[in-house]
Write a sequence for this structure.
């Protein structure tokens, strides 16, 4: 059965960079091959660059983006720990759920969906939580929150609280600066602005988080102590200690995409996302469509827009898919049929993609 | 940096089938695309065939083989549950570790490494454990254990105990018959006899295991209730409920490899592994090398052989890698420098690979 050639303009996955696809299909290396270890080291270095961090514990986890969230809480939450979670969309809700499973006492700070996280309200929720968690780029609403401000406010108050940021949709799409912002724990996914197929969760963990980590986390597969011994070498062992078989094809693909990003320049890449997203948002408004996310906080890489009242949301998406091979996203939860989400991420952050989806959407809405 | 083209004859990963590589590089589909859902359904059906099961809960988990072990225990162990683990190699030891993290009272039944699991001893360990766990094909030693016998003995005693089998290195290499053997929980990895890159853990779970599962397992990412709502559809929802972004490229690759296995015929595939492994083991003995695994219990797809006393194990592996681009495996743990492990798995289960590694090894040992 031949598969369709989709143009993936939903909330992810996006179409990978050609270099990333070539990396997937390259001759496979074993996970203990010296060449692979070198490639892995390089990929981790390149990840440090896009994260804006010098954290030694920076690595791609062997699962899709959500495994980053799982690893974040699994390695830091002790039963009874207070975890303040800023909730302004689906992924904030999910953080509450995951943190609870590790026994956290979750304090949920709810925001109107479509609005950014309010630093003051988050800080007011508890004087000294173990962790404050927020989503940088809410994939469910297309909203950017100011993690820099949250980090600065937290740091001015205490050095005890760890700051956790979900960067699944932000990394390599808008500026991310883990060290400068004082973020302790962050994770992303490969299938958004990094321009790689889904399958890995880039992850970074500060030295402060490392010192306070759970030494034997409940989840063996995500035990950062054991993972570190493979990815970064075990202290005193002189080498890498096998933990689990790394997904070598996916890592080669990630490395190839990171090389491309490095070649273009990270600033140029985020500028490309900005410019293309601005054009899309302008074009949608020219068509009379109303943005969903609050003005001034709209992600360029993922645009949410209200479905006009008399339009069948699912029908439009279906026509885009079947007539144009274009995938855009529905909303989730309460927003399922009232917003669309259009992603211009990674390799798809291009003006031709913006014009294409604008044109196709205009045609479908007209007829 | 150009990467070497390795011939992967270690304990895995093995070189993927060409169809699997093409599947990885095919145009990417979104995880909610109707075409992808159809592909996923088909891949799950094909997995049922290779597992020998009608279990509705049969799916590829989004991580490498070890995540299958994690999911197995995370979804079944309640604190205090007695779990009897047959240990005859590294992966038995790992099962003890993982089960313990979920609060199991582990009863470890140790065997000499290189020997198969002794059904009588495992049964004698406890009259009514919640779970009995054993490794079908011990990757660390090259030994096959008789899961059919273990299942029959368990079933004749009780229907309360769940039987868990690690099939990472066995699936599609030697016969596996989950339903006929009475196995309740089994997992594998794609990078061995299935002939796919590492990145997925095929998993199957009996209806009896489902009824007794932990409803809210500690690990959100591996919650079979939530995963099932995406992979198989949620009862009453009329559709698939998003859980996490599935690794669509890897799943397309798995589906393509399963199609190839189906075309060749599963019996023909296991027969090919058997014949090629027999030739390798014969050839190694002709060279004067001594098998490590007990006679009558040697895996054809993964052969362990003792390193001759005056030979530097690491040096030989290094020469095979640098001079011939051939990867074979060292031993692990106490066996690190005393055995080699040679895999002829999936696409590498071919006579030309057997002769190649025999010839190259002979040359390296001679000079």
């Amino acid at each position: 059965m031949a598969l369709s050639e989709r143009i993936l303009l939903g909330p992810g996955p996006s179409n990978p960079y050609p270099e990333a696809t070539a990396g997937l299909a390259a001759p496979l290396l074993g996970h203990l091959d010296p060449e692979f270890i070198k490639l892995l080291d390089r990929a981790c270095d390149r990840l440090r660059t896009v994260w804006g961090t010098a954290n030694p514990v920076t690595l791609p986890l062997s699962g899709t983006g959500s495994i980053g969230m799982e690893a974040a809480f699994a390695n830091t939450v002790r039963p009874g720990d207070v975890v303040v979670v800023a909730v302004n969309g689906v992924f904030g809700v999910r953080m509450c759920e995951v943190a609870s499973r590790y026994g956290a006492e979750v304090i949920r700070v709810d925001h109107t969906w479509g609005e950014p996280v309010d630093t003051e309200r988050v800080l007011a929720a508890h004087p000294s939580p173990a962790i404050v968690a927020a989503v940088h780029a809410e994939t469910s609403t297309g909203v950017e929150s100011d993690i820099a401000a949250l980090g600065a406010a937290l740091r001015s108050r205490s050095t005890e609280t760890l700051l956790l940021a979900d960067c699944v949709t932000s990394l390599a799409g808008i500026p991310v600066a883990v060290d400068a912002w004082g973020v302790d724990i962050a994770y992303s996914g490969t299938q958004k602005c990094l321009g790689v197929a889904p399958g890995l969760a880039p992850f970074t963990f500060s030295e402060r988080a490392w010192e306070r980590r759970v030494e034997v986390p409940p989840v063996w597969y995500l035990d950062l102590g054991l993972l570190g011994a493979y990815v970064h070498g075990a202290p005193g062992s002189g080498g890498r200690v096998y933990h689990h078989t790394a997904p070598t094809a996916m890592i080669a693909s990630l490395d190839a995409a990171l090389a491309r990003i490095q070649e273009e320049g990270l600033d140029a890449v985020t500028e490309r996302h900005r410019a293309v997203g601005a054009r899309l948002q302008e074009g949608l408004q020219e068509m009379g469509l109303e943005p969903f996310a609050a003005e001034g906080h709209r992600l360029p890489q993922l645009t949410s827009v209200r479905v006009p009242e008399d339009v069948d949301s699912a029908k439009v998406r279906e026509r885009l898919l079947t007539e144009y091979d274009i995938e855009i996203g529905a909303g989730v939860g309460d927003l399922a049929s009232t917003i669309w989400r259009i992603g211009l991420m990674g390799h798809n952050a291009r003006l031709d993609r913006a014009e294409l989806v604008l044109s196709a959407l205009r045609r479908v809405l007209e007829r």
Q: What stands out?
A: Chain B is about 40% helix and 15% strand. The longest strand of chain B covers residues 82-87. The CA atoms of residues 133 and 164 of chain B lie 5 Å apart.
